[in-house]
Design a protein that fits this description.
By secondary structure, this protein is an alpha/beta fold. It is 22% helix and 35% strand. The strands form three sheets. Strands 3, 4, 5, 6, 7, 8 and 10 form a seven-stranded mixed β-sheet that branches. The chain is globular, with a radius of gyration of 19 Å.
Length: 208
């Protein structure tokens, strides 16, 4: 009887596919500077502490935007100064879902007010990081002794259009970093960005 029992269907093992367009497809302009809410690291954590007491854990989202050069995947990063890099994104507002927040933030950071909003397609969640304390360290898991993380950051893969105009705040540069440069390079890019090559290895890139 057991042999005749219908077994549950196995989950699909299909690999997620993503179209990557050449960097030369995109136009880069500039716009007014975009300044952080907090001018220092200490003031950032002070604001996080104050908000935690009133609304709880901070939620943030960041976008992983990919292009290619000579069939090599590159991640678009915002560069501030000579050695600070970050993914475009920011804080999720109260009552806002992740997708709406990410599209709002991408348009704020890379869009132009006089042009229609870009057609950002949020594909899938590829990573999560937690900040256990009001301090810089973040981890891709919640440490065992932590019951109330102070920040939860989600990384989303975002499909960018085949062609687009990126309007970059004047105090930033938008750079395309190849995956091989990010790999195992926490000293240069920090633990979150340097983890991207492993997170993206499950994707099937289609070079258009």
């Amino acid at each position: 009887l057991l042999l005749n029992r219908k077994m549950p269907e196995a989950p699909s093992l299909r690999q997620l596919s993503l179209s990557l367009y050449p960097l030369s497809n995109y136009t880069f302009g500039t716009k007014e500077p975009l300044f952080e809410k907090d001018t220092t690291v200490s003031s950032r954590f002070q604001r996080m502490r104050e908000e935690f007491d009133t609304v709880g854990m901070r939620r943030s989202v960041e976008a992983v935007l990919l292009v290619h050069e000579h069939n090599l995947p590159h991640v678009l990063l915002l560069q501030l100064g000579t050695s600070f890099f970050k993914l475009p994104g920011g804080e999720v507002q109260q009552g806002e879902d992740d997708e709406a927040a990410l599209k709002r933030l991408l348009n704020d950071i890379l869009g132009r007010a006089d042009l229609p909003a870009s057609n950002w397609v949020v594909q899938t969640l590829i990573g999560q990081w937690w900040r256990p304390n009001f301090e810089p360290p973040q981890y891709p898991y919640i440490p065992a002794h932590v019951t109330k993380p102070k920040e939860h950051k989600k990384l989303y893969l975002v499909q960018i259009p085949e062609q687009a105009l990126f309007s970059v705040p004047r105090n930033y540069k938008l750079v395309a970093a190849p995956l091989f440069e990010l790999y195992d390079n926490s000293s240069g890019y920090g633990p979150v960005i340097s983890s991207l090559p492993q997170l993206l290895s499950r994707l099937d890139f289609q070079y258009v």
